[in-house]
Amino acid sequence: MSAPTMPPSVLTMPLLGMKSAPELFRGDHSHIRNFLDHYECLCALHNVIDDQEKVYSILQYCSTKVQETIEGMIHYHIPNWDRLKHDLLKYSDADLSDERFYKKDLKNFIVNSMHHLIHSLIAFRSYNGDFICIGGWLRNQGRISEDEFN
Fold it and tell me: DSSP alpha helices (H): ranges in 18-150?
């Protein structure tokens, strides 16, 4: 006879370091959105829908400094997941990662690239990859038109 399986709950959430657990969050603005998305997917997978359970169990995936910051937030003590998530995005400067490139970055890249001749397929692929990284991001964000990208 096999052991009974436990229904998904906050108790079945993976421990830090396990394969399906998010990496330890240290407060870096460039990782906050992915961290929160991963955490919310885990909560959905494990049927963690109660705000109090979501708010309290996020601490296990955070560094001590981030834990102390979260514990100082009002929406940790009066559990409200959506508000706590909003506060985490605000205080970790998530907007900084939303502003990855500006038009001037693409112009600078193009001007600098004009001084370097492309003599090989490897050099072209490197240039093309860098151009797509900057220009493609700007185009997809609506910062430049399709004509400017081409």
Answer: 32-45, 51-57, 64-71, 74-77, 81-91, 94-98, 103-114, 121-131, 137-140, 146-149
Q: What is the mean pLDDT of residues 59-73?
A: 96
Q: What is the pLDDT of residue 4?
A: 65
- Give yes or no for a contact between 56 and 17, defined as CB atoms under 8 angstroms apart: no
Sign of the torsion angle spanned by Cα atoms 126, 131, 134, 140: negative
Q: How far is CA 81 from CA 20, 133, 150, in A?
A: 21, 34, 43
How many alpha carbons fall within 13 Å on the CB side of residue 72? 8
Q: Which residues pair with 25 in a beta bridge?
A: 62
What is the chain's mean pLDDT, rounded?
A: 89
Q: CA of 46: how far to CAs of 12, 14, 83, in Å?
A: 7, 10, 21
State residue 130 phi and psi, 5-degree precision.
Answer: -65, -40
What's the average model confidence in pLDDT over 46-53?
Answer: 95
